[in-house]
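Lecture 7 notes: from sequence to structure.

We start with a single chain of 477 residues. Read the sequence below before looking at the structure.
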Amino acid sequence: MNIQRKYSLPNCTLLLEGLSDVTRAAHFQEMRPELSILVNAECYLSGYNQPLTGGREFFESLVRAVSGYAQEFLSSVPNPQAHNQESELVEFQKIGSNRHRLIIHSEGAPEGFESHSNNSKRPPIEIDLNTVQLFDLVEAVDQFFADTQTLPELSLELQPVTRRYGGASQALIRQAVPAAVGVSSLAVAAIAFNLIPPPQMRPPQPKPDEQTSSTTKSITPPASAAATPIVAATPTPTPTANAKPVVKDLEALLNTVPEITDPSQLRALNRQVYNQIHPAWTNRSGLPQDLIYRLGVAADGAIVGYKAVNKEANQGVGQTPLPNLLYNPANRAPISNEPIAQFRIVFTTQGVLQVSPWRGYARTPEVVGTKITDSNITKGLNQKLYNTVRQSWTGTPTFTRDLKYRVAVNKDGVIADYEPLNQVAFDYFRETPLPKMFNAIYGSNVAAPNDKEPLAHFQVIFKPNGKLEVTPWQGYQ
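Now the structure, written as tokens:
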């Protein structure tokens, strides 16, 4: 089985592709298998249209050089591991206070990068990075080492810098900072060099429910998007004083929190997810095939992560609104032990959005909330709702199939909620008066339904011939 792991920062994305070792099947996890055989590694850097690519040797050399250079840069003590061009494919050179040169000597040398060598035989590739780009690369490597399900046998063996590399200043040696996992992050670099205001620092060993884990979404950034890598989970926010670490890996998150399976709650969340994605999907043309994703959603409807299910979804995520709909941890408490619901999202080539629970409904869902059950009151509200909708429904229908809705009203007959029950009801809802009626009361067509008082529920059917049917609600079919 082909496995992909992705570690994303605003200026750098590491994408690893590989396989599980069948001889270690005992450690296989259904939700997140172990990537133990590396087939291909890609490093996307902002400002460059093509990724650096290579195999296992290239990737191991890259992480050693990155960690060694970060140790050197933060401590001001030379580290030979960062400049070992005799035995390493990758090395770093400092070319200024805010400029760093990444050099690749053999593999991982795609077209589009500038070479400063006159050697016609496999010249090295040289890429100049600023400090922010460098530490986004360092953070991506940190995320990889924190991921125990990816190349678990690969570890970073850091050695103390020997005295002969430290020069005469013992004070300089004493200020050396080890580039250990989680220590050489952008936040630390920003504090050290005053690049950005100091954010709240992440503890070196975060608690399990606050740990920032690696993204493992199988989403390959297109070449045109390399400058702004797509984040397939909670986006990395601009550091603020109140920002907290966020779990980025949807699969890892699902392995550590309860899953929402109650059909009634799933039904309500299904609507919230649709109402978020539907209006945000503005460009619905040009999809060669359906794009299918698995979505993670918190109990309040916040989208906390997504994963591409098919190859086309990997390549076409930029044509969907998903990257922009992920919840902002600066405006909401971080996801920790909250239960998560899973949904299947399909962006079809016909421009139709499909949203359904990932595992379906275990049983027929029910409407949440207190209901008006008195038959005399319900009968009067039924007639009042019919009259209100009939008077408001004008125009000639263009649809050819029945539009079915669940409509709820309060004891005064005022609409409190409505929900499409079939796909054509989603597609042609603007030809009904329901959204205008709802918007006139709540100021938004996607406002949360009024569930603070008992409601009477009805099925309302708009027919292509102009007829209207309103009947008491019998439940979801």
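Residues 4 and 17 are 5 Å apart (CA to CA). Keep this in mind for problem set 3.
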